[in-house]
Structures are given as C-alpha cells and as structure tokens.
Amino acid sequence: MKNIYITTAIPYVNGAPHIGHAMDYCLADVCARYHTLLGDNVRFQAGTDEHGNKIDLKARELNVPVQDYVDKNAKKFQEFVAGLGVEYTDFVRTTDAGHMRRCQEIWQKLSEHIYKAKYEGWYCTGCERYVTDKECEENHGACPDHQKPYERLSEENYYFRISDFKDKIREAISSGEMLILPDYRRTEMLKLLDESPDVSISRPVTQLKWGVPVPGDESQVMYVWLDALSNYITVLGYPEIDIADWWPAEAEFVGKDILRFHAIIWPAMLLGLGLPLPRTLVSHGMVLSNGQKMSKSIGNVVDPVEVLNRHGLDAFRYFFLKHIDTFQDSDFTWEKYDAAYANELANDLGNLVQRLATLAQKNHIELGEYVAPKLPEEYCALMDNYEYSKAFDYAWEQVQKINRNIDELKPWSLAKNCETEKLQACMTKLICDLLDTNQMLSPFLPTAAKKITAIFADQIVPPETPLFPKQ
Ligand code: MSP
Predict the structure, then answer these.
(1) How far is Cα 444 from Cα 321, in angstroms, rounded to an integer?
(2) Is there an atom of ligand 1 within 6 Å of 228 CB?
(3) How far is residue 48's CA from residue 94's CA, in Å, rounded to a whole number?
(4) Considering Cα of 299, then 302, then 305, then 307, what sign does the dihedral take?
(5) Which among 146, 224, 233, 257 is the best mutation to test ligand 1's pocket, defined by most ligand atoms within 8 Å of the CB?
(6) Omega cis (within 30) before 248
(7) What's CA 245's distance to the chain center, in Å?
(8) What does the pLDDT look like over 356-383, one tens digit per residue?
(9) Residues 6+ away with beta carbon under 8 Å from 273
(10) Distance, CA of 204 to CA of 119 (rounded, Å)
(11) Which residue, by CA, sits nearest to atom 30 of ligand 1?
(12) CB atoms within 10 A of CB 243
C-alpha cells in the first residue's frame, strides 16, 4: 500500500467552468480511483486560481468587489467538480489566508534565487506571461490563444533565477526522473528550458493589486503563476507541515497549454525549496468544438452543464474519457456525443446488463459469492502509463466480447431445453465476466459501476428503468 498524491491544474475563476476544465478533474479522478482499487492511500487536490489581472479586470467590468466575485465563482467550480463525480480530498483557493501566508514563506525560502531588475517587454494578460520579441513578431503582435494584442510593459520586477536550476531540470526531464507525458512533449520542454530566461515573478502594485503581497516590499505583488503553482504544496500544509508522506506527487494533470509552467518554473521552485520533483507530468490535449478551438468569438463554446444534462454523468465521463484521447486534441460535437450514448453506452453496456439480469432472474440463477480477480495486466499496463482512453477501450472490448459470447452461447436455448446445469454454468460465467469488466470500468464510470454491482449482488434483479434510457 502506497501513499499517492494526485493534483489538477487550478482554473482561473474569471468565468463559468468550461468543458476544458473537466478534463483535468476527470483524468485525475480516474487516476485516484484506479489507485484506490489497487489498495493505495490517495490524496487528491483540486482548487481555484483566484488572483491576477484578468480576474481583477473582470470583476471591475462587472462592477462587483473582486473578493465577492471570486467567492461566487469558486463556489460554482466546487459544484461543477462535484457534479462530475470527482472525489477530491483537498480543495485550495489561492485567496485562502493560509495559502497566501504559505506563498510568502515560499518566497522567502527562495530569496537567494530572487533579484530585482527593470524589464520591458510584451505581455499577454490572458496567458499572464511575457512573451519574447520573437514570439510577438511571429504572432503579429497578438496572442493567438486570447486573440488580443500584446501589451508593452515596462516595470521594475523581482526575477527568479531559473538559470540556477536549468542543469538539474534538464537532467530530471531527460532521465525521466520527472516523467513528461506524452513522450513527444519532453523534447519540446527541453527546448523551451534551454531558451528560458529568468522569470519575472512580481508586478508593481500600480499594475496589479489583486495578488499575494511580496514579503518585505509593499510596492510589489507576486506573479500569479508563482502563487498558483505553490498551491500543490501549500494545500498539504507546506512549509509548516512536513509533507514527505505525500510529496512528491505521483501525477500532476495539466493541459498542454500550461505544461511549460509545470515543466520549467515549478521544478525550479521545488529545487530552490529543496523538495523533490513530481514523478509525472501528464499533459492532456485540448477539447475542440466542431474541429476548432473553443472561443467565445467563434461562438462554438460548449457548455459543460448542458452536456451533463443531456444524458447524465455516465455519458459525460464516457465521452470525455474514451472518445477524447488522453493526450491528443479531440473533437466534441453533439452528433458524436449522442451517437456514443445511444450506440455504445446504452446499446453495448446498458442492454448487456438488462439482458443478463433479466435472464438470471427468470431462470433463478444464483451467483454465489463473487470475488473480484486481479486486474488484467494489459489494462494495468495502460493505466500505469496514463493511457486512460486506451485502457477504457480495452475494458470496452471486454463488454463487446461478453455480448458476442451471449449470442454464441444462447443461454435462452439452454433454458428452453431445460439444460439447467449448463445454463447455470453459462450464466455464472457471463455474469462474472461482466463483473470483472465492471471493475475495470469503475474508475471511468463510477456511478454506473456501482449500480451494476448492486444489480448482481445477492438476488439478481434487473433495473426497473434501463441504466441508460433511450432519449
Ligand atoms: N490558472 C491556470 C492554471 C494554474 S495551475 C497551477 C490556468 N487556468 S485555466 O482556467 O486557463 O485552465 C485550467 C485547465 O483547463 C488547464 O489545464 C487547461 O489546459 C485546461 N483547459 C482549458 N481549456 C481547455 C480545452 N479546451 N480543452 C482541454 N483542456 C483545456 O491555466
């Protein structure tokens, strides 16, 4: 039994939760549930990123006090996570007094790697980062992700000397001590690391008020990423609590767009604090909408609540964990979503459960005590490598195999011919195969898996309404 710590990126609360946010939570939840199945002790962080200019700007635009604004939105995010069936153990808000105090302590511990200097450069408030002149030129002066012109800023800031840690980070990435997944992102990060200048880690209060004050300098506020990245350890109680029982994290789930912060600044911070690096950075792809990046201006933003309400939670998790590839960008369309629900979830799994339970009840099949076997090696290998959509495919192939087996074994003919013993053996085998598969499905579809377990426990009773009703 191991202690396993799993983390998710903390979203900015400058709007309602969107479909992309669901990816970090759902993937981490699969990881947490899989480790629980293996018998590990799991600690699972989620949270909200509540500082920075874009949140401040949004609250001003709405003419509400910024604290009220983030309080309201943080609540929405908590409800959203719960609605996804995600069972985190710790929730951190970056405006929590405890988090802010710990951030300041982290700053002080890093002080020998911090210096003050003047900087002039191009800044994107959407990304909350400076871009190089080259990047600004290549993007024709506007951020492609946020479709806004870069701002020219000239400030006196504090800098974090990334160069103090570059060799160690390079070594950790290259050797796999800090594994970056998918593998091809590793080379990308090594290149970025080589090009990475020291990072500006503060903003003058004249430019940004909404943040953690820099200790000992009232004129400066901490850079939002320094504050945000710290959440992974402040939530465990660092620095006043020894976090060695949980840290390093087994896996940190982030979108590919923010991997650079996690692969460069974050390890530099940890090395500066004398802490080990996370074992794995899992960077997932983007959810596209009709083949395009979701954006308000294109008008193709998919509302996760609408998706949840359409066919329920299992359908949501089914689609986003199986049809959305764990690592590659993948497309959401309502047509694909409806088809996956009707043809796969309802047809393959829902009908299978209904058929087996009805046959079992009608023929008084008794299962006896069912003991779940060890999970198959192929499945574990995929899960251990964070290939979740592939592991889900593997489990689903077993669902389809059981359907084929029913058609071949024809238990209804055995019943008709009164071949009672053969029928009992055949049904027991089919139901046990289903329950074995159900175990593999449980990290992905916890609600459905629970219902299936209940249906085949003790007296087998088919559900009154199908697991996935026709809609
Ligand atoms: N606040 C930072 C993260 C700090 S972590 C120390 C941030 N927030 S965010 O709200 O912009 O993004 C939160 C997460 O959602 C990121 O992992 C990001 O990649 C993910 N996604 C945002 N849009 C997405 C898609 N369209 N598809 C998949 N995930 C995407 O960055």
Answers:
(1) 7
(2) yes
(3) 6
(4) positive
(5) 257
(6) yes
(7) 22
(8) 999 999 999 988 889 999 999 999 999 9
(9) 106, 109, 110, 239
(10) 12
(11) 20
(12) 18
Q: How far is CA 193 from the centre of its chain?
A: 24
Amino acid at 296: K
Place of tokens 């945000």: 228
> Residue 272: CB within 6 Å of ligand 1?
no
Residue nearest to atom 24 of ligand 1 (CA): 20
Task: Give Rg (Cα) of the chain.
Answer: 25
**354 vs 463: CA distance, rounded Å:** 7
Tell me if the pTM is above 0.85.
yes
The H-assigned helical ranges of 14-84 are 19-37, 53-62, 66-83
Two tokens, residue 345: 């979830």
Nearest CA to ligand 1 atom 17: 255
Spatial distance between the Cα atoms of 251 and 186, rounded to a whole number of angstroms: 15
* Residue tagged 């198959």 (tokens): 376
Q: Taking CA 385 as the corner, what is the angle to CA 380 and CA 389, rounded to the nearest 5 degrees?
A: 80
Which residues are part of the catalytic machinery? 18, 21, 124, 127, 143, 146, 293, 296
**Following CA atoms 59, 64, 68, 70 in sequence, which dihedral angle do they give, to the nearest 10 degrees?**
-10
Express each pLDDT in 185-236 by its tens digit: 999 999 999 999 999 899 999 888 899 999 999 999 999 999 999 999 999 9
